[in-house]
Design goal:
By secondary structure, the chain is α+β, with helices and mostly antiparallel strands. The chain contains nine helices and 14 strands. The strands form four sheets. Strands 2-4-3-6-1-5 form a six-stranded mixed β-sheet. It has a four-stranded mixed β-sheet with strand order 9-10-7-12. A two-stranded antiparallel sheet has the order 8-11. The longest helix has 16 residues.
């Protein structure tokens, strides 16, 4: 009977993005009775599949699984959350039926479908997965797996036949950006995640603690799909509103008092310029 292992989700390496890889600790692979190249089923709110590869020594013993943003989206899980992982049999896909999720581009023709297998060679998929098949100049172009033969988790090879299902319309947003898409900013991303993810995930805790913006009302307009990666974000800070009070504050005072009064508002000039 397959062994299930609960592991914490962490970010993938930049070079792993789009390859369907899951980096595991050697001890975790041993517990799963798996080796490099085996397929694992990853269960969050949904299930997806990935191909096992190894982690670097600094990640040993952390009971974690490194997967990219596409795999996390397919499993419907966020960074820091836990997933259930188990080994499954490795099968080769003979036929894959896909449907486009974005009509921003011309639908692929038969001869282009024949090239999909070469582009995606080695990628593990399962019904319901989203996959990225880049368009010209590397522009993202997402499709959904509607069916596979054989069923279950499969790996695409050069002989896999792709078929296109043409839906009536698309409900997917055209933007699919994850943390791994931004390189060289690991420390900055960690700070941003702390500022953005915690309030999004645990908003009720911030409300109970009475945490408020120190300079006045701070508003956020977010368009998202209930994940931690909004594809539209607008911030309305209190800086410009506070500055509008400056005129009334200095009426009747001397010019020498302007700097002190201005400083007392404690505004951020970068916010004013924005």
């Amino acid at each position: 009977m397959p062994t299930d292992l609960d592991l914490r989700v962490t970010e993938a390496l930049a070079e792993d993005v789009g390859k369907g890889l899951a980096r595991l600790d050697p001890e975790d692979m041993k517990a799963l009775n798996a080796v490099l190249g085996d397929l694992v089923e990853i269960r969050g709110e949904k299930k997806t599949v990935a191909r096992i590869t190894g982690v670097f020594p600094e990640s040993y013993g952390k009971k974690a699984i490194q997967i990219d943003g596409i795999t996390r989206s397919n499993a419907k899980v966020n960074l820091g959350e836990k997933v259930s992982v188990r080994k499954i049999s490795r099968q080769t896909a003979t036929t894959v039926l896909v449907t486009p999720l974005d009509f921003s581009y011309v639908l692929p023709e038969e001869r282009e479908l024949d090239q999909f297998a070469k582009v995606l060679q080695g990628l593990p998929v399962i019904i319901g997965d989203k996959i990225n098949i880049p368009f010209l100049a590397g522009k993202e172009r997402f499709f959904q797996i509607e069916a596979t033969s054989p069923s279950g988790g499969v790996i695409i090879n050069q002989k896999t036949k792709f078929l296109l299902k043409r839906p009536d319309f698309s409900m997917e947003a055209p933007s699919h950006v994850s943390y791994e898409d931004v390189g060289g900013l690991e420390n900055e991303l960690r700070l941003v995640r702390e500022m953005v993810e915690l309030p999004l995930r645990y908003g009720e805790a911030f409300e109970r603690l009475g945490i408020e913006a120190p300079k006045g009302e701070l508003g956020f307009y977010i368009v998202s799909d209930n994940s931690i990666a909004p594809y539209r974000l607008h911030v309305r800070s209190s800086e410009l509103i506070n500055l509008t009070a400056f005129r009334d504050m200095v009426i009747g005072w001397k010019i020498a008092d302007l700097i002190l009064t201005f400083g007392s508002i404690d505004i951020c000039m970068g916010e004013i310029d924005r």
